[in-house]
Specification:
83 residues; Immunoglobulin-like; 3-stranded antiparallel beta sheet; 65% strand
């Protein structure tokens, strides 16, 4: 399977709050590849799809590295085989 990129766009948090990956996704299916901010107050987190399967991806809006999340976002990522 050719590896594909999957991007999640999240609204940028208020001052001092940043999006962090909250739980580990299944790295055999997809793993975090990159993250960054784009103009328009959006944070983008990119995952690389590695093989067919399903995994959950969760994010938490936290104050730096603290555990308390002020917002959360959860997604189910389904990677289908090509062909």
């Amino acid at each position: 399977m050719t590896q594909a990129l999957v991007a999640f766009a999240l609204p940028r948090g208020q001052s001092g709050l940043v999006w962090r990956t909250a739980r580990d996704s299944n790295p055999a299916v997809a793993r975090e590849f990159a993250e960054g901010d784009i103009p328009g107050n959006i944070t983008v987190v990119v995952f690389i799809a590695r093989k067919a399967g399903t995994t959950n991806v969760a994010f938490g809006l936290t104050n730096d590295e603290h555990q308390k999340a002020y917002r959360a976002a959860r997604y189910r990522l389904i990677v289908k085989p090509r062909g």
